[in-house]
Amino acid sequence: MQELKVLSVEEKLNLDIPRISKEVIGAEFQKKVYLESYGCQMNFADTEIILSVMQQNGFTSTSNIQSADLIFLNTCSIRENAEQKVRNRLEHLRGLKKKNPDIKIGVLGCMAERLKTKLIDEEKVVDLVVGPDAYRDLPNLLGEVDEGQKAINVFLSREETYADIEPVRLNSNGISAFISIMRGCDNMCSFCVVPYTRGRERSRDASSILNEAKDLFNKGFKEVTLLGQNVDSYKWKDESNGVVVNFAQLLSSVADINLQLRVRFTTSHPKDMTDEVLKTMAAHPNICKNIHLPAQSGNSAVLDRMNRTYDREWYLERIASIKRILGDDCSITTDTIAGFCGETEAEHQDTLSLMDIVQYDYAYMFAYSERPNTPAAKKLKDDVSEEVKKRRLQEIIQLQSKHSFERNKLAIGKTHEVLIEGFSKRSAEHMCGRDGRNSMVVFPKGDFTKGNYVLVRIDDCTSATLLGEVVEILEPHKR
Ligand code: SAH
Ligand code: SF4
Ligand code: F3S
Question: Rounded distance, CA 110 to CA 78, Å?
Fold first, then answer.
């Protein structure tokens, strides 16, 4: 018996009223895609690439899942609970698909890459599996899905950077945007799944990055964050003249676009962060003074088992360099992992003592979660009990919250430059924005507008927020 083909809205329209063009039919008849993102900022930036590819192929995005023809989950594999979240979400979507069997569901991103066909086998609700380097293939894959097949592309590329695809800014405040400057990672931190889900490191064409930043600025954006797993190893060769651009040079060129454009970047790797980058930051007032320099652990033996390729002394020397070149005005943030393979109580204490020395402004803190097929999973034993991991993580969190509060208290009485992002979530009478150190600052709304640069005198704080009052609106020439 011949299989019945399910027709898409567009196909039906083409059959019924073949002479009416898509433009005339209008947006309400276009297929709608609902996108949900998990994981790191790079993954969120990828969702904007995905939407761009979809829009070029006649889709519109919707924030109402009930009205979607397609649901895409752009997923993360970094820890077990990140994957569990997506599995739970798929369980929920199973109910939605029962009510509306025409709806198609795609799993994209890192989980797609890690689990490949297993996702289709295990999660019957999934129609489409697409890895992070295969988004250009979405139109073809959707064609297969339209024909009633399951579709998959998890090919990892050595070249793909999506340099020519202009991201469609999603949930944007119109002020601040992410720019991916590279993809993949060539480090082999033993705990980490990223090299397997994102493939080899490759840097994006510097001129395409500059053009994207200029374009954002011309559209009214005031802040860009340059993204990479290890921005310090950014390296791009212009084949036309043989000139090689490193990260410090790229950073400097982006900062030179306009003094009104703030520049941030993440993530710096302690083994690669150079004084040249720090000096570039010092030389440009519009490069925000904030460095995310994940330590992971404060103990050299643990760092060695993690294959981080630096030790505690090296890390502390990099911190000293930051203070030497940028002074105490530069905020420093970190990532830590509690309970890595074989971590003893004394090794854990070294993480706490490193935190005491550095006095981080903020930290992302995690309990170790073994990821299948990583070097640690293959060679080391995940032998710290869940209970001990939790307790150590709790100690790290408590210490960090004390440090964050103390760091914030130091700001009281000082004046910080803030880029206004909008109204405060908690009160319509207040506006908020970030200072150069990346702290959230809240102040009475006055008659300021989103996108204004203002000087705020800090009067009070919590461990998460600075509170103050605007003392001056900065005219463009004053920055
Ligand atoms: N490229 C960045 C990190 C990206 S992943 C860097 O090198 O610093 C973000 C953070 O997740 C890591 O810094 C690490 O702290 C944490 N992480 C990664 N793998 C993990 C795992 N298996 N278990 C727990 N935390 C992990
Ligand atoms: Fe993972 Fe290490 Fe690469 Fe960061 S640098 S993404 S932790 S392998
Ligand atoms: Fe997660 Fe992939 Fe980012 S594993 S942290 S979404 S690179």
Answer: 8
